[in-house]
Amino acid sequence: MERTPFHQRIKTLRQARGMSLRQMAAELEKYGVKVSHNAIAKWEAEKMPGSTRLPSKEVISALCKCFNVKPSFLIEEMFGKGTSKDSDRLQKFTDIELLTSEEFDALLRVKDLFIKRKHIAGEG
Amino acid sequence: MLQRYSLERESSTWLKDSIDRIYIDDNYHCCSTDNFEIWHIGDCCDYSCGKTIEGFSADLIFCGDFWASKTLVKHHMKTNRFLDVLERTGQACCVIEMRTPHLIWGHGKNIYDIAIPEHLCADIVAGAKAVEMYSKSNVVGIYRNLKKLA
Which residues in chain B have Cβ-Cβ distances shorter than 8 Å to A84? Predict the structure, then answer.
């Protein structure tokens, strides 16, 4: 399974939260990191495969706080391709971090409904 | 051509947890060299650089001595692309084995070091070898006397 590149991940997270580049710069400043919207645009720019240069450790930490995600999720491309023997189904859920809390709760309710139905069918 | 290798789930989880600990500051500064700042994750080592402890062999070097010696690093990294990748992209990950295998994460001038749990060593070492990100000293341990490396 291909890993999501850092630049794409940042862009997807920002867009999933409906932030503009300027709003994201303002959010990062709250976590002690001062960057311009131009700098964020550069992070998000398409890169050649394997050419990603991560921002500083402080910026990575601030991005994680800003988007409420783990560093390993943000920089997963650094782990190389397909480094886990997790099942295909589990791998497909790596992007679950992109969902808002409400969307995640809705997904859980649907999952619980399917499991409940399965139990009822099994008992019947 | 580099081979693909799939880590076991437990190894992959440990790897990700270790990276998370680096960026959430669960690490401590060990020492500085001309080229790098060396850090350890959690309570990686039983001793600190520059401090000897009872029963510790004086022949073995501390990690700061290793990273400070370009000769030693070059010698040790013959089969490991870590430094090339770190220089080219600004970050890299590898396994180096001296007494025991350690995971090394490099980000810019920072080198983070954590001992790999014994039960995960075989899997993670195999994964690192597959992508030429593994090196092991060709002597038992690394000695202060560089002549012993020959």
Answer: 6-7, 9, 12
